Amino acid sequence: MATFLYRLGRFSFRRRRLVLMLWIAVLAAVGIGAAGVSSSTSDTFAIPGTQSQKALDLLEKEFPQASADGATARVVFEAPAGQKLTSAAHKAEVESLVGDLKSASQVANVVDPYTGGTVSKDGSVAYAQVTYKVAQADVTDAARADLEHVAEQGERAGLAVSMGGTAVNEESHQSAAELIGIVIAALVMVITFGSLVAAGLPLLTALFGVLAAICGITVATSFIDLSSSTSTLALMLGLAVAIDYALFIVSRYRGELKEGHDPEEAAGRALGTAGSAVVFAGLTVVIALAGLSVIGIKILSDIGLGAAFAVVVAVVIALTLLPAMLGFAGGRISAGKLKTRRMRAIEQGEREPMGVRWARFVLRNPVKVLGVSVAGLLLLAIPALSLQLGMPGDSTATPGSTQRIAYDTVTDGFGAGYNGPLTVVVDARGSDDPKAAAQDAVTLLDDLPDVASVSPVSFNETGDVALIRAVPGSSPTSEDTVGLVSDIRDRGAALHDDTGAELMVTGTTALNIDISGKLNDALIPYLCVVVGLALILLMLVFRSILVPLKAAAGFLLSVLATLGVVVAVFQWGWLADVFGVDQTGPIVSVLPIFMVGVVFGLAMDYQVFLVTRMREEYVHGAEPKEAVIAGFRHGARVVTAAAVIMISVFAGFLFSDTALIKSIGLGLAAAVFFDAFVVRMTIVPAVMALLGRRAWALPGRLDRILPNVDVEGEKLRHLLEEDTERTEGDGIPEPVHTGKG
């Protein structure tokens, strides 16, 4: 691979105009395609194989008029202060609005608040439940416009009208403050390289790649239904890794120039060495993200595959467009007019870099440093023991939005449980007396202490499948409601034994509980798969057993500490004002497992970029501790800059008004900080110092079995040395390329 990348780097450098024009053509094509499509996004959560999904499928078959899997909306009416909706004038107005809802586009059914019993006891609040003929993803703009028109009419009549439910999309606006991450990234690269040209190239190619990836995802939404968070997370991760990958290659290119190679040769060598590491690092991220699709939850598959696509584009950009841009920059990339006196002293060998001094400190005190670092991460991980998972809904909507107002109004007027009623299905097709079985189910529900109300039984046409609505006494996301659903299902087993009827719980609340449970159960197995993958990949790269074990253990520490921070902020409310968290609650269910996949990829990035140089020095004869110092001398500055850039980009998403995006931004920023600075820059050298030569030991049998992937380009270096000796022996001078356009 290193030899291929070496040739690719030289080709892209030499044919830079062609490469640039091809990429511009690609960007123009996907840009035009994205501008001309009508995208379709949604946040529908569905999970096959669960009881709630099984019940929905049965309702779709036996109660087609109910549109069990259709989108829903709840239109909440509130009377002016001191007045009641039961007055003749207000009642007439509400009934007129309900009539408009029944004739609205795509509406299947509307429950009138006066006939459906959804008027509060004091008469101040009422709501109409709207069911649509289509799923959430298929609700048209015209249908949503009809909803808004009803709300406007109600407002003009003096009523307060708010709307919630899956048919009502909460608009997510990306704050301009997120650009702060890009600005900080640019400043970090200027400080790292001391050159505007060297700092600008990674940022330019990263933006180019992210734009191409986002346009590609937008084009894909015209063919498939994707989660609305797909593009945002692809932007977040794609931008961060694209800058990092370009940063590593540019840094290596400058190093090759400093060793006396001409620009084209330096570009080839940079891609053959750092480029190989970029390919491996990108591959680990892609595998971890794409692996999320095997869990079987659509939104997780969408964001995983979308982010993986953005990473693939970032890798391809780094291997093709970046060396072409290096060709345009030529020798100017080494001209550093912005270098400080300290940077110049380090380059001239008059002063040790801070990374080297830090490595020497850790190597002198490995036990103390290791103990403090591990203890600190474990302490931060303590809140993770109380991790609670939940799904986003109207309760987590932005304060002041119509969804949040509707949720709070219903809670004040009726009780929190009315925001998440349970749909109980009695499949009595195997019962001798379906009506008696359904009545037994009603009695069962009435006897439960946390059930606020139970609706009358509705039967299908054949009279063997019953539908019952039960309202919990607690909010949809509370532990009491989770326990209630579990209790109903447990008692349903006894009902089946007595009557032969199967009792199932479904609805949005039950679906969310099942999804959270499925994700919670999948977290540990997925973590084991990811750690196992890490061990295999790192064993291939470093040809060692202890180094991969140490890397995997560090990865686990990073994940646990990060989960602890997320729980402390978003669930416990610590520093909530600082991070702009308006309401605490369960952690979004997809966050932990998604974060495991992403953090795994990022952890392997830093592991590869830092430790491959250590191995390279060790293979060349350096003592173990000197190899660690050499690795820090060449890689610490770039790894630090890459980590700061990633933290800045991820932290910028804390300004998002969406709970999922905000929590992922904080989680990934914290994960990068812990993994880069605590694990890779502190724990790794401490462990390497304690292990000594044993760190690089590999049993002979494994050494023969494992293929040599040569991530650090050792074979390429030997090949180039042989070519140089042969060229010098023939008396033919090597051509010198200026790198000018």
Describe the SSE topology.
Layout: H1 2-14, H2 16-35, E1 41-42, H3 51-62, E2 72-78, H4 88-102, E3 107-111, H5 113-116, E4 125-132, H6 141-156, E5 160-164, H7 179-193, H8 196-220, E6 226-227, H9 230-258, H10 263-290, H11 298-329, H12 341-347, H13 354-364, H14 366-381, E7 389-390, H15 402-413, E8 422-427, H16 434-446, E9 451-454, E10 458-459, E11 465-472, H17 479-499, E12 502-506, H18 508-542, H19 546-571, E13 587-588, H20 590-619, H21 624-652, H22 659-691, H23 700-705, H24 714-729
Parallel strand pairs: 1-6, 7-13
Antiparallel strand pairs: 2-4, 2-5, 3-4, 8-11, 8-12, 9-11, 10-11
Helix pairs in contact: 1-2, 1-10, 1-11, 2-8, 2-11, 4-6, 7-8, 7-21, 8-9, 8-11, 9-10, 9-11, 9-21, 10-11, 10-20, 13-21, 14-19, 14-22, 16-17, 18-19, 18-20, 19-20, 19-22, 20-21, 20-22, 21-22
Domain SSD: 179-328, 525-690
Keywords: Cell membrane, Membrane, Transmembrane, Transmembrane helix
Protein name: MMPL family transporter
Q: Explain this structure to me?
A:
With 741 residues, this protein is of the alpha+beta class. 63% of the residues lie in helices and 8% in strands. It has 24 helices and 13 strands. The strands form four sheets. Strands 8, 9, 10, 11 and 12 form a five-stranded antiparallel sheet that branches. Helix 14 packs antiparallel against helix 22 and helix 20 (590-619) runs antiparallel to helix 21 (624-652). The longest helix has 35 residues, at 508-542. The two termini are 28 Å apart.
Rounded Rg: 30 Å
Biggest sheet statistics: 5 strands, antiparallel
State the oligomer.
single chain
Q: Number of helical segments?
A: 24
